[in-house]
Amino acid sequence: MPFYNDLRPAKDFEERDFERVRPDMTQKEKLRTIEGLGRLKDQLAGLPKRRTEQNLIVASWNIVALGAGTYRTGESLYYLAEIMSCFDLIAVQEQRSSLTDLDKILRIMGPNWKYMVTDPMGGTKGNEERSAYVFNTDRVQLSGVSGELSVWKELLEEGSDVLLYFDRPPNITGFRAGWKEFAMINVHLHPGNKSAKPDADPPRIADAEKRRKEIASILGILDDRKAKLWTENLVLVGDMNFYKDDDADTIKTITDLGYVECDGLEGKTTNIVVRDSDAEAYDRMFFSSDDYFRMAVGEDGKQVGGVLNPFKSVYRDEDLDTYRPVMAGKRDKQADKDAMENDDAKAWRYYRDTFRKRQLSDHFPIYVELEIDDSATFLERSAKGLMSED
Length: 390
Description:
This protein is α+β, with helices and mostly antiparallel strands and 390 residues long. It is built from eleven helices and 13 strands. It has helices at 10-15, 27-44, 74-84, 100-109, 153-156, 207-225, 248-256, 320-330, 334-342, 344-359, 375-388, and strands spanning 55-66, 89-95, 113-117, 130-136, 141-148, 171-177, 180-188, 234-239, 259-261, 283-288, 294-295, 305-307, 366-371. The strands form two sheets. Strands 1, 2, 3, 4, 11, 12 and 13 form a seven-stranded mixed sheet that branches. Helix 8 (320-330) runs antiparallel to helix 9 (334-342). The longest helix has 19 residues, at 207-225. The protein is globular and about 75 Å long.
């Protein structure tokens, strides 16, 4: 459960020096945050509940440009912490080189939360991003195995679908929880849905084709390394930038190799939608299919998984006027500051398309509930084995 020291009234600090994350929060911001957390808590109450040693709630979230710039407020850090603390293990994409915001979020979440991050990815397309995992140490532990998926010469010679390198190399990391041991491959695939331009200099392949090659390379590496991996139980997860009209063949490539999605999550919109045509299932989670990964099943008979849209509770459409002064304070030019206060159309566009995305993200977190207690199955199998020895 998160710690809320920053939200205390001033008199509390006269009696005790509570540790704070954002001591610059104003009284107005504190009150606004408390109100937002109240609404958010009501929404989060609908998520799967932790069951001691029986389940694991696994999530993935592209938190746009986490650690880049100074535009996130103390209020938004509290909302991020509140949401993330409802899961047990979160694969994070777009963590930037600075870990300052992530450190603050984990301080709010409490001492039982840790993270594991990779080095920043260089190059113009690497965007200084890190692959990150945030996990509750009371519920899940690192296996001790982690590394970057890389391509080697012999693999390149096996087929043209294998890429020489990844713009954002995927990371594979092992975890243990209850009776389960598995590895997650955290990916952030090539974005966009532009067409190919073979006559350009240099030639440009279509964005969907680039993603198909990325996936083919990842699956090729995993297949080649299967016998040498720490575990064959794999979760391919992250912001895959799949477009419903462009990437169906790539998704089929994944599922044809035996990977499955949670049917409670499959195909659900995972991004902010301004126009109906914006709705896409960018963020995905595929499990290597056998009896190892058992997903919890809800009362409706569907596997438990879903997408959380936090803008139903915080930074809502109806909150525009509340944030006009905050948005004005984030603009550099006086004309832009004045527009936030006086121009309804410009203020609305900035709030909808920029401000609230920068506070939380333009992607929503996705989650799946896994069953991790195999003790009954183990005992039943052992009993059958013992009886067959008679």
